[in-house]
Amino acid sequence: MDCLENAGRLKAKDYKKCVLYSTLSPCDMCTGAVLLYKIPVVVIGENSTFKGPENYSRQRGVKLINLDLDECKNMMRDFIRECPQLWNEDIGV
Ligand SMILES: [Zn+2]
């Protein structure tokens, strides 16, 4: 969501040409944004720490590429250890 906000206001035709890069598998909210804006490709750093509705995204035509990177897993492990309250808010716990 931060990424989309930081990209500014784009035209619908521009979103359809975007590739979204995400550290984690997109959650329900981010998946909704991807579908709403018809972003065709999402590159995921890893989905071991958290897995969003990937099958639903695929069924809706989004191409998901999971890089399964240890670097992202380590980054998430450190973030969750340092900011557990923020992580719990992010995932709706
Ligand atoms: Zn999200």
CATH class placement? Alpha Beta
Number of strands: 3
Number of helices: 6
Structural class: alpha/beta
What small molecules does the structure contain?
A: zinc ion
Considering DSSP H and I runs of 4 or more, what fraction of the residues is helical? 40-55%
Largest sheet: 3 strands, parallel
- Counting structural domains, the number is 1
Features of the shown structure:
93 residues; 3-stranded parallel beta sheet; 6 helices; Cytidine Deaminase, domain 2; binds zinc ion; alpha/beta
Describe this structure in words.
The protein has 93 residues and is an alpha/beta fold. The protein has one domain (2-90): Cytidine Deaminase, domain 2. The chain contains six helices and three strands. It has helices at 2-7, 12-15, 28-37, 54-59, 70-82, 84-90, and strands at residues 19-24, 41-46, 63-66. It has a three-stranded parallel sheet with strand order 1-2-3. Helix 5 (70-82) crosses helix 6 (84-90). The structure holds zinc ion (ZN). Zinc ion (ZN) is lined by residues 26-27, 29-30.
What's the helix and strand layout?
Elements: H1 2-7, H2 12-15, E1 19-24, H3 28-37, E2 41-46, H4 54-59, E3 63-66, H5 70-82, H6 84-90
Parallel strand pairs: 1-2, 2-3
Residues 26-27, 29-30 line the site of zinc ion.
In summary, what is this structure?
By secondary structure, this protein is an alpha/beta fold. The chain is 49% helix and 17% strand.
